[in-house]
């Protein structure tokens, strides 16, 4: 790895000779591999992780994040596709620790630059029950990946959007918590992304600093007074980090919040002379993970975080499409359909939790919603084809659909969108296929064959099946 000379010079000056030497040595080592178990789908006591080395320290008591002894072939583990765990580098999981400390009652939260979805799903793992998460990505191709990962996570209380920050400002929506994991110069990704090294320049650092300030300025009116802003980058320099959060505090009006940490975690504080506010920098070699910077600020004046019910917008005019009487029967596809409104938009049916229906309606007036609540299905003639996210949702009523357990080879074939025959005697119609009890998706049994309904754009493209490390997560029973 050849680092840019200007980067070496400026970072060595920033960190000092000793810390830079530790950092430089870490860049020559393999990237640590880590995963986070989805608590909505399985508990820590239910699963084994054969490759686990030890827990990630800032995940203790918040969620089950573990380091692995080596990087396995994640693509060939059916439980990854079922959303039972998420592959995420360890430093990024720190956001769950932050939210666990400061969010104690239901909130509306926005993850502004959310793709591919790691921080959103980490947040959803720890937000109090009754919270609503907006997960947004401005770039459409990345927003599609975000939508897929949110669907696999299976949480009903999430809205995925494809908008720029200024669109949110125009929407009039207000949030108790906003996470701005802003686009940056990517210094923290050097170890695993050669492109980040090639694209780095001092000019790009300056450009990123200005862009980051624009992003925060655009979204700032959407944060309630007293609300929390979590600012993060995957870079090391002070221009994109300390200088920016200082600017946010002084120019926009906010105070810094300290986060409880342990000295053994190896997190580094401010590296900017004269700046002593609490900030949290993860440096490879000092911490086991990739580069990350995070600061937590509370917007000045007014109310504090909490009580979503008192803050839901009351304007019920211009709802997209009201629940149709002939669609309410599809609420039985959910464990507790009475908690949802079933809405029709074009040829698609969606179940929106009644608790935040008015928020959804308000968002729909000005934002581009890619998914919300639980997609139920697509109308085709007199039939309704169940949506793939329904199979992955924690709210699916599994008594409605016949279920067939697949072997490992059958599960991989299904995930490749190949034909997977169903056992003789399987009822005709839509069948939920599972692996170790975990739903993978639907097939339609038409008697002489079964049609694989797995999404074409999600399928495994490789024809190779590795001999080892195929199942990262296993069950005790």
In words, what does this structure look like?
It is a single chain. With 477 residues, the chain is of the alpha+beta class. It is built from 13 helices and 23 strands. The protein has helices at residues 5-15, 17-27, 78-81, 94-102, 118-126, 140-153, 165-171, 194-199, 202-219, 242-253, 357-364, 388-392, 408-415, and strands at 33-37, 47-48, 52-55, 65-68, 85-87, 108-111, 132-136, 158-161, 175-181, 223-233, 254-256, 280-282, 292-299, 340-345, 348-353, 369-372, 374-380, 383-386, 403-405, 429-435, 438-445, 450-452, 474-475. Strands 6, 7, 8, 9, 10, 11, 12, 13 and 16 form a 9-stranded mixed beta sheet that branches. Strands 3-4-1-5 form a 4-stranded antiparallel beta sheet, with helices on one face. It has a 4-stranded antiparallel beta sheet with strand order 14-15-17-18. The radius of gyration is 23 Å and the shape is globular. It starts with a helix and ends with a strand. The model is unreliable at 306-325 (pLDDT under 50).
Write out key terms for the chains shown.
477 residues; four-stranded antiparallel sheet; 13 helices; alpha+beta
Question: Which helices and strands occur, and which strands form pairs?
Answer:
Elements: H1 5-15, H2 17-27, E1 33-37, E2 47-48, E3 52-55, E4 65-68, H3 78-81, E5 85-87, H4 94-102, E6 108-111, H5 118-126, E7 132-136, H6 140-153, E8 158-161, H7 165-171, E9 175-181, H8 194-199, H9 202-219, E10 223-233, H10 242-253, E11 254-256, E12 280-282, E13 292-299, E14 340-345, E15 348-353, H11 357-364, E16 369-372, E17 374-380, E18 383-386, H12 388-392, E19 403-405, H13 408-415, E20 429-435, E21 438-445, E22 450-452, E23 474-475
Parallel strand pairs: 6-7, 6-9, 7-8, 9-10, 19-20
Antiparallel strand pairs: 1-4, 1-5, 2-23, 3-4, 8-16, 10-13, 11-13, 12-13, 14-15, 15-17, 17-18, 20-21, 21-22
Helix pairs in contact: 1-2, 4-5, 7-9, 9-10
């Amino acid at each position: 790895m050849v680092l840019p000379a200007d980067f070496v010079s400026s970072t060595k000056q920033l960190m000092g000779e000793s810390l830079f030497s530790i950092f430089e040595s870490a860049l020559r080592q393999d990237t640590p591999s880590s995963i986070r178990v989805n608590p909505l789908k399985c508990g820590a006591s239910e699963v084994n992780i054969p490759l686990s080395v030890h827990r990630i320290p800032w995940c203790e008591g918040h969620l089950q994040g573990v380091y692995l002894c080596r990087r396995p072939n994640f693509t060939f583990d059916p439980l990854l596709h079922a959303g039972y765990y998420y592959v995420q580098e360890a430093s990024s999981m720190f956001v769950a620790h932050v939210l666990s400390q400061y969010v104690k009652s239901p909130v509306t939260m926005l993850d502004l630059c959310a793709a591919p979805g790691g921080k959103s799903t980490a947040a959803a793992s720890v937000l109090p029950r009754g919270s609503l998460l907006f997960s947004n990505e401005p770039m459409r191709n990345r927003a599609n990946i975000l939508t897929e990962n949110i669907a696999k996570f299976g949480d009903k209380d999430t809205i995925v959007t494809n908008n720029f920050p200024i669109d949110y400002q125009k929407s009039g929506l207000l949030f108790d918590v906003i996470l701005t994991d802003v686009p940056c110069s990517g210094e923290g990704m050097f170890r695993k992304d050669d492109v980040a090294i090639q694209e780095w320049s001092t000019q790009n650092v300056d450009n990123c600093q200005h862009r980051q300030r624009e992003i925060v300025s655009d979204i700032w009116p959407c944060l309630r007074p007293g609300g929390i802003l979590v600012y993060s980058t995957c870079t090391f320099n002070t221009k994109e980090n300390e200088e920016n959060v200082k600017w946010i505090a002084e120019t926009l009006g906010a105070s810094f919040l300290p986060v409880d940490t342990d000295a053994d975690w190896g997190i580094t504080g401010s590296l900017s002379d004269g700046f002593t506010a609490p900030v949290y920098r993860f440096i490879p070699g000092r911490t086991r993970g990739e580069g990350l910077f995070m600061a937590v600020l509370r917007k000045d004046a007014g109310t504090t975080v909490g009580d979503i019910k008192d803050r839901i917008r009351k304007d019920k005019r211009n709802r997209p499409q009201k629940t149709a009487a002939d669609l309410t029967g599809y609420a039985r596809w959910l464990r507790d359909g009475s908690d949802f409104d079933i809405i029709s938009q074009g040829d698609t049916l969606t179940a929106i939790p009644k608790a935040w229906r008015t928020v959804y309606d308000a968002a729909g007036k000005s934002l581009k919603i890619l998914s919300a609540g639980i997609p139920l299905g697509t109308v085709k003639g007199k039939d309704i084809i169940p949506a793939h996210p329904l199979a992955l949702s924690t709210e699916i009523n599994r008594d409605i659909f016949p279920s067939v357990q697949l072997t490992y080879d059958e599960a991989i074939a299904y995930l490749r969108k190949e034909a997977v025959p169903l056992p003789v005697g399987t009822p005709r119609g839509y069948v939920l296929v599972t692996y170790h009890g975990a739903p993978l998706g639907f097939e339609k049994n038409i008697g002489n064959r079964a049609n694989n309904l797995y999404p074409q754009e999600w399928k495994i493209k490789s024809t190779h099946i590795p001999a080892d490390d195929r199942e990262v997560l296993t069950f005790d029973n």
